[in-house]
Amino acid sequence: MKNCYKRFGSRFILNTTKLLVWWFFNVGSERKYKEAIERVNQFAMEVIKSKETQIGDKTNEDLLSRFMASSWEMGFEDEERRKFLRDIIISFILAGKDSTSTALTWFFWLLDGHPHCKHMIHKELSMLMTSTHHIHPLNLTFDDLKNLHYLHAALSESMRLFPPVPINSRLTVDDDILPDGTFVGKGWFADYSAYAMGRMERLWGSDCREFKPGRWLDDNGMYQNFDQYKYPVFHGGFRMCLGKEMAYLQMKSVVVAVMHEFEIEVVGGGGTPEKMVEPPYSLSLLLNMKNGLHVRLKKRQQ
Protein backbone atom coordinates (compact mmCIF):
# COMPACT_ATOMS: atom_id res chain seq x y z
CA MET A 1 0.00 0.00 0.00
CA LYS A 2 2.84 2.41 0.86
CA ASN A 3 4.45 1.70 -2.52
CA CYS A 4 1.14 2.52 -4.23
CA TYR A 5 0.95 5.86 -2.45
CA LYS A 6 4.56 6.60 -3.36
CA ARG A 7 3.94 5.84 -7.05
CA PHE A 8 0.76 7.93 -7.05
CA GLY A 9 2.51 10.81 -5.28
CA SER A 10 5.43 10.69 -7.71
CA ARG A 11 3.11 10.77 -10.74
CA PHE A 12 1.15 13.64 -9.23
CA ILE A 13 4.31 15.69 -8.63
CA LEU A 14 5.63 14.96 -12.13
CA ASN A 15 2.33 15.87 -13.82
CA THR A 16 1.99 19.06 -11.75
CA THR A 17 5.55 20.06 -12.55
CA LYS A 18 4.97 19.41 -16.25
CA LEU A 19 1.83 21.59 -16.25
CA LEU A 20 3.68 24.40 -14.49
CA VAL A 21 6.49 24.24 -17.04
CA TRP A 22 3.97 24.32 -19.91
CA TRP A 23 2.18 27.28 -18.30
CA PHE A 24 5.42 29.23 -17.73
CA PHE A 25 6.78 28.67 -21.24
CA ASN A 26 3.35 28.79 -22.93
CA VAL A 27 3.72 25.43 -24.67
CA GLY A 28 1.77 22.15 -24.92
CA SER A 29 -1.83 22.00 -23.72
CA GLU A 30 -1.49 25.35 -21.93
CA ARG A 31 -0.80 27.10 -25.23
CA LYS A 32 -3.72 25.34 -26.92
CA TYR A 33 -5.95 26.30 -24.00
CA LYS A 34 -5.04 29.99 -24.24
CA GLU A 35 -5.49 29.96 -28.02
CA ALA A 36 -8.92 28.35 -27.63
CA ILE A 37 -9.98 31.00 -25.08
CA GLU A 38 -8.81 33.73 -27.43
CA ARG A 39 -10.87 32.29 -30.31
CA VAL A 40 -13.99 32.09 -28.14
CA ASN A 41 -13.52 35.65 -26.88
CA GLN A 42 -12.92 36.91 -30.40
CA PHE A 43 -16.08 35.21 -31.67
CA ALA A 44 -18.15 36.68 -28.83
CA MET A 45 -16.77 40.17 -29.48
CA GLU A 46 -17.63 39.91 -33.19
CA VAL A 47 -21.22 39.00 -32.29
CA ILE A 48 -21.46 41.99 -29.94
CA LYS A 49 -20.04 44.44 -32.49
CA SER A 50 -22.40 43.20 -35.19
CA LYS A 51 -25.33 43.67 -32.79
CA GLU A 52 -24.19 47.21 -31.97
CA THR A 53 -24.85 48.21 -35.58
CA GLN A 54 -28.45 47.02 -35.21
CA ILE A 55 -29.34 48.86 -31.98
CA GLY A 56 -32.70 50.57 -32.40
CA ASP A 57 -33.90 48.04 -34.96
CA LYS A 58 -37.25 46.84 -33.61
CA THR A 59 -36.89 43.51 -35.43
CA ASN A 60 -34.04 42.52 -33.10
CA GLU A 61 -35.70 41.36 -29.90
CA ASP A 62 -33.36 38.49 -29.01
CA LEU A 63 -31.96 38.05 -25.51
CA LEU A 64 -28.53 39.53 -26.29
CA SER A 65 -30.07 42.65 -27.86
CA ARG A 66 -32.12 43.20 -24.71
CA PHE A 67 -29.04 42.82 -22.51
CA MET A 68 -27.17 45.29 -24.69
CA ALA A 69 -29.99 47.81 -24.49
CA SER A 70 -30.07 47.61 -20.69
CA SER A 71 -26.26 47.78 -20.38
CA TRP A 72 -26.19 51.33 -21.76
CA GLU A 73 -27.56 52.53 -18.43
CA MET A 74 -24.91 50.79 -16.30
CA GLY A 75 -22.22 53.44 -16.71
CA PHE A 76 -19.66 51.19 -18.47
CA GLU A 77 -17.01 52.46 -20.84
CA ASP A 78 -17.40 50.93 -24.30
CA GLU A 79 -14.66 48.32 -23.86
CA GLU A 80 -15.77 47.41 -20.34
CA ARG A 81 -19.37 47.02 -21.53
CA ARG A 82 -18.27 44.74 -24.36
CA LYS A 83 -16.31 42.54 -21.95
CA PHE A 84 -19.34 42.38 -19.66
CA LEU A 85 -21.56 41.30 -22.56
CA ARG A 86 -18.88 38.86 -23.77
CA ASP A 87 -18.92 37.11 -20.38
CA ILE A 88 -22.73 36.86 -20.55
CA ILE A 89 -22.57 35.24 -24.00
CA ILE A 90 -19.98 32.70 -22.89
CA SER A 91 -21.91 31.89 -19.71
CA PHE A 92 -25.01 31.19 -21.84
CA ILE A 93 -23.03 28.80 -24.02
CA LEU A 94 -21.39 26.95 -21.10
CA ALA A 95 -24.51 26.86 -18.90
CA GLY A 96 -26.61 25.22 -21.59
CA LYS A 97 -24.04 22.83 -23.05
CA ASP A 98 -24.26 19.95 -20.57
CA SER A 99 -27.84 20.45 -19.44
CA THR A 100 -29.19 20.58 -23.00
CA SER A 101 -27.30 17.47 -24.10
CA THR A 102 -28.46 15.63 -20.96
CA ALA A 103 -32.09 16.56 -21.67
CA LEU A 104 -31.79 15.35 -25.29
CA THR A 105 -30.25 12.05 -24.17
CA TRP A 106 -33.28 11.17 -22.04
CA PHE A 107 -35.62 12.52 -24.72
CA PHE A 108 -34.35 10.15 -27.43
CA TRP A 109 -34.32 7.27 -24.91
CA LEU A 110 -37.98 7.90 -24.10
CA LEU A 111 -38.98 8.27 -27.75
CA ASP A 112 -37.54 4.87 -28.61
CA GLY A 113 -39.74 3.33 -25.93
CA HIS A 114 -42.84 5.20 -27.16
CA PRO A 115 -43.09 4.69 -30.96
CA HIS A 116 -46.41 6.54 -31.20
CA CYS A 117 -44.82 9.73 -29.84
CA LYS A 118 -41.92 9.37 -32.23
CA HIS A 119 -44.38 9.02 -35.12
CA MET A 120 -46.33 12.09 -33.99
CA ILE A 121 -43.18 14.26 -33.90
CA HIS A 122 -42.09 13.18 -37.38
CA LYS A 123 -45.61 13.71 -38.71
CA GLU A 124 -45.77 17.23 -37.24
CA LEU A 125 -42.37 18.09 -38.73
CA SER A 126 -43.35 16.74 -42.16
CA MET A 127 -46.59 18.73 -42.15
CA LEU A 128 -44.77 21.92 -41.15
CA MET A 129 -42.15 21.54 -43.88
CA THR A 130 -44.87 20.87 -46.46
CA SER A 131 -46.88 23.92 -45.43
CA THR A 132 -43.82 26.21 -45.42
CA HIS A 133 -42.35 24.69 -48.61
CA HIS A 134 -39.00 24.01 -46.94
CA ILE A 135 -36.91 21.15 -48.26
CA HIS A 136 -34.59 20.89 -45.26
CA PRO A 137 -35.16 21.53 -41.52
CA LEU A 138 -32.14 23.85 -41.36
CA ASN A 139 -34.22 26.33 -43.37
CA LEU A 140 -36.91 26.50 -40.69
CA THR A 141 -37.23 29.90 -39.03
CA PHE A 142 -37.65 30.72 -35.35
CA ASP A 143 -41.41 31.14 -35.87
CA ASP A 144 -41.57 27.79 -37.70
CA LEU A 145 -39.95 26.02 -34.75
CA LYS A 146 -42.38 27.70 -32.36
CA ASN A 147 -45.23 26.05 -34.26
CA LEU A 148 -43.95 22.55 -33.43
CA HIS A 149 -46.35 22.27 -30.50
CA TYR A 150 -46.23 18.48 -30.08
CA LEU A 151 -42.42 18.47 -30.11
CA HIS A 152 -42.40 21.25 -27.51
CA ALA A 153 -44.80 19.21 -25.39
CA ALA A 154 -42.71 16.04 -25.73
CA LEU A 155 -39.54 17.88 -24.66
CA SER A 156 -41.33 19.38 -21.65
CA GLU A 157 -42.72 16.00 -20.67
CA SER A 158 -39.29 14.40 -20.99
CA MET A 159 -37.75 17.05 -18.71
CA ARG A 160 -40.60 16.66 -16.24
CA LEU A 161 -39.58 13.03 -15.74
CA PHE A 162 -35.83 13.51 -16.24
CA PRO A 163 -34.86 17.11 -15.42
CA PRO A 164 -31.23 17.83 -16.39
CA VAL A 165 -30.59 19.28 -12.91
CA PRO A 166 -32.53 16.96 -10.57
CA ILE A 167 -31.85 18.74 -7.25
CA ASN A 168 -31.35 22.43 -6.52
CA SER A 169 -30.13 24.12 -3.34
CA ARG A 170 -30.45 27.70 -2.17
CA LEU A 171 -28.94 29.49 0.82
CA THR A 172 -31.22 31.94 2.65
CA VAL A 173 -29.79 35.41 3.22
CA ASP A 174 -32.32 36.34 5.90
CA ASP A 175 -35.15 34.92 7.99
CA ASP A 176 -38.25 34.30 5.94
CA ILE A 177 -41.66 32.63 5.94
CA LEU A 178 -42.63 30.36 3.05
CA PRO A 179 -46.13 30.69 1.52
CA ASP A 180 -47.34 27.63 3.48
CA GLY A 181 -46.23 29.21 6.77
CA THR A 182 -42.94 27.32 7.16
CA PHE A 183 -40.22 29.34 8.89
CA VAL A 184 -36.80 29.45 7.19
CA GLY A 185 -33.89 30.88 9.15
CA LYS A 186 -31.00 32.96 7.91
CA GLY A 187 -28.14 30.76 6.67
CA TRP A 188 -30.35 27.69 6.16
CA PHE A 189 -30.12 25.62 3.02
CA ALA A 190 -33.40 25.16 1.16
CA ASP A 191 -33.35 22.22 -1.25
CA TYR A 192 -35.94 21.07 -3.74
CA SER A 193 -35.97 18.18 -6.17
CA ALA A 194 -37.44 18.76 -9.63
CA TYR A 195 -37.02 15.00 -10.20
CA ALA A 196 -39.25 14.13 -7.24
CA MET A 197 -41.78 16.86 -8.00
CA GLY A 198 -42.21 15.52 -11.54
CA ARG A 199 -43.33 12.21 -10.03
CA MET A 200 -45.77 13.57 -7.44
CA GLU A 201 -49.31 12.30 -7.92
CA ARG A 202 -50.59 15.34 -6.01
CA LEU A 203 -49.15 17.61 -8.71
CA TRP A 204 -49.53 15.56 -11.90
CA GLY A 205 -52.25 13.02 -11.27
CA SER A 206 -52.33 9.24 -11.14
CA ASP A 207 -50.42 8.96 -14.45
CA CYS A 208 -47.50 11.06 -13.15
CA ARG A 209 -44.93 8.35 -13.87
CA GLU A 210 -46.03 7.94 -17.49
CA PHE A 211 -44.59 9.70 -20.54
CA LYS A 212 -47.59 11.56 -21.97
CA PRO A 213 -46.80 14.66 -24.07
CA GLY A 214 -50.55 15.19 -24.54
CA ARG A 215 -50.86 16.54 -20.99
CA TRP A 216 -49.17 19.72 -22.26
CA LEU A 217 -51.62 20.30 -25.14
CA ASP A 218 -55.04 21.93 -25.08
CA ASP A 219 -58.08 20.70 -27.00
CA ASN A 220 -56.77 22.37 -30.17
CA GLY A 221 -53.36 20.71 -29.94
CA MET A 222 -51.65 23.93 -28.85
CA TYR A 223 -48.89 23.88 -26.25
CA GLN A 224 -49.88 25.25 -22.83
CA ASN A 225 -47.57 26.09 -19.94
CA PHE A 226 -48.07 24.81 -16.43
CA ASP A 227 -47.45 26.77 -13.24
CA GLN A 228 -43.70 27.43 -13.07
CA TYR A 229 -43.65 26.37 -9.42
CA LYS A 230 -45.27 23.07 -10.33
CA TYR A 231 -42.65 22.56 -13.06
CA PRO A 232 -39.40 24.03 -11.65
CA VAL A 233 -37.08 22.58 -14.30
CA PHE A 234 -36.14 26.15 -15.30
CA HIS A 235 -36.62 27.50 -11.75
CA GLY A 236 -39.29 30.14 -11.10
CA GLY A 237 -40.01 33.72 -10.17
CA PHE A 238 -37.04 36.11 -10.23
CA ARG A 239 -34.72 33.11 -10.60
CA MET A 240 -36.33 31.90 -13.84
CA CYS A 241 -33.61 30.64 -16.21
CA LEU A 242 -32.72 33.37 -18.72
CA GLY A 243 -31.77 30.76 -21.29
CA LYS A 244 -35.07 28.84 -21.19
CA GLU A 245 -36.28 29.86 -24.66
CA MET A 246 -32.79 29.43 -26.07
CA ALA A 247 -32.63 25.90 -24.65
CA TYR A 248 -35.95 24.93 -26.23
CA LEU A 249 -34.82 26.41 -29.54
CA GLN A 250 -31.55 24.48 -29.47
CA MET A 251 -33.26 21.20 -28.57
CA LYS A 252 -35.92 21.60 -31.24
CA SER A 253 -33.27 22.39 -33.85
CA VAL A 254 -31.27 19.28 -32.96
CA VAL A 255 -34.33 17.00 -32.88
CA VAL A 256 -35.73 18.12 -36.25
CA ALA A 257 -32.31 17.94 -37.93
CA VAL A 258 -31.62 14.41 -36.64
CA MET A 259 -35.12 12.97 -37.07
CA HIS A 260 -35.47 14.38 -40.58
CA GLU A 261 -32.38 12.49 -41.72
CA PHE A 262 -32.36 9.35 -39.56
CA GLU A 263 -34.44 6.73 -37.83
CA ILE A 264 -33.02 6.27 -34.33
CA GLU A 265 -32.86 2.90 -32.60
CA VAL A 266 -31.53 2.68 -29.05
CA VAL A 267 -29.21 -0.28 -28.50
CA GLY A 268 -30.82 -2.58 -25.96
CA GLY A 269 -34.16 -0.78 -26.21
CA GLY A 270 -35.35 2.63 -25.12
CA GLY A 271 -37.42 3.98 -22.27
CA THR A 272 -40.44 1.71 -22.26
CA PRO A 273 -42.90 2.02 -19.35
CA GLU A 274 -41.26 -1.05 -17.79
CA LYS A 275 -37.74 0.40 -18.00
CA MET A 276 -38.90 3.75 -16.67
CA VAL A 277 -39.58 2.11 -13.30
CA GLU A 278 -35.82 1.87 -12.69
CA PRO A 279 -34.20 4.28 -15.16
CA PRO A 280 -30.44 3.94 -15.80
CA TYR A 281 -29.39 7.27 -14.34
CA SER A 282 -26.08 8.25 -12.78
CA LEU A 283 -26.66 11.00 -10.24
CA SER A 284 -24.24 13.91 -10.10
CA LEU A 285 -24.79 17.63 -10.53
CA LEU A 286 -26.63 16.57 -13.68
CA LEU A 287 -28.96 13.62 -14.19
CA ASN A 288 -26.65 11.73 -16.54
CA MET A 289 -27.51 8.45 -18.21
CA LYS A 290 -25.34 5.63 -16.94
CA ASN A 291 -22.85 4.56 -19.66
CA GLY A 292 -24.40 7.04 -22.11
CA LEU A 293 -26.95 6.45 -24.86
CA HIS A 294 -25.86 4.00 -27.57
CA VAL A 295 -27.90 4.16 -30.76
CA ARG A 296 -28.06 2.83 -34.30
CA LEU A 297 -28.84 5.34 -37.03
CA LYS A 298 -30.64 4.36 -40.22
CA LYS A 299 -30.89 6.77 -43.11
CA ARG A 300 -34.52 7.78 -43.46
CA GLN A 301 -36.18 7.29 -46.82
CA GLN A 302 -37.43 10.72 -47.90
Write the layout of secondary structure elements.
Elements: H1 2-25, H2 28-52, H3 63-71, H4 78-113, H5 115-132, H6 142-146, H7 149-161, E1 167-171, E2 176-177, E3 183-184, E4 189-193, H8 194-197, H9 201-204, H10 244-261, E5 262-266, E6 281-283, E7 287-289, E8 295-299
Antiparallel strand pairs: 1-4, 2-3, 5-8, 6-7
Concise synopsis of the structure shown:
The protein is mainly α. The chain has ten helices and eight strands.
Q: Could you please say which CATH topology of the domain at 99-299 applies here?
A: Cytochrome p450
The proportion of residues in beta strands is 5-15%
Task: Give the H and E element order.
Answer: HHHHHHHEEEEHHHEEEE
Q: Uncertain regions: pLDDT < 50 for 5+ in a row?
A: 4-9
CATH superfamily of the domain at 99-299: Cytochrome P450
How would you characterize this protein structure?
The protein is 52% helix and 10% strand. It is mainly alpha-helical and 302 residues long. A two-stranded antiparallel ribbon has the order 1-4. Strands 2-3 form a two-stranded antiparallel sheet. The protein has a two-stranded antiparallel sheet with strand order 5-8. It is built from 10 helices and 8 strands. The protein has a domain at 99-299: Cytochrome p450. It starts with a helix and ends with a strand. Helix 4 (78-113) packs across helix 7 (149-161) and helix 4 (78-113) crosses helix 10. Strand 2 and strand 3 form a beta hairpin.
